[in-house]
Amino acid sequence: MVAESKKIQTLVNVIADQGEAIRLAVSKLIATRSKFNTANPDANGTVVEGNLVPLNNSLNRINAEISKQVWTDIINARSPSHRNKALD
Amino acid sequence: MASGDTLAIFFPASGEPPASNYPTLDTRNGVLVLDFDDTTDENIEFAGFMSRAYAAGGITVTIGWAATTATGGDVVWDIAFKSISDDADDLDSKAFAAANSVTATTASSSGEVDYATITFTDGADMDSVAAGEYLRMQINRDADNGSDDLVGDAELVFIEIKET
Question: Do A1 and B152 touch (CB under 8 A)?
Fold first, then answer.
């Protein structure tokens, strides 16, 4: 039976991998938002008309959550040579 | 051969892997190592020849290994022998003798090498390998053993066989 410590490490590694992916995605969205605001195109009649504010608010909330220290701590605890199979 | 004298030494480059579930070659600061997974049992074999100076006093196998990154935890290593005697043993069917094991604690720093030892009494315990005989040695990391709690790869650096 696989040791408990390895099951925990699998969880840590998966959270770390996905957490970093979310941070990267959020970073790209924030950069694109900045470019969009600079360009300031006319959104009338497009799918984003009326949706920019709620999208902006959602992105800010996601960024606030994924930036929390708990995610950083888990990412820093990742073990690169652990294969993430202990929960299979 | 006197007690404590080296009979054979093996290094990662001479490992002979099975078709599946084998450790992978890696380098660490230029040193060739074999990386053993921490959740799937992996094994590899080494071909050898028992020194003609072996005095049938039994052997001690020393496994030199290091953790890839961990600085705490234990690894369970298994060693088994298979002798191929003159005009007696069939390469196609001869099986390994039962393995002997050691639960080894990692060194305090991940780059440090721990020397873990396993003893074998002369005779059936080491498949009756005699002086002047071809032998095969198998090393396995028992990764799904509950006592093996080292997270991440265990890296094999060398194996030494000496007269006990």
Answer: no
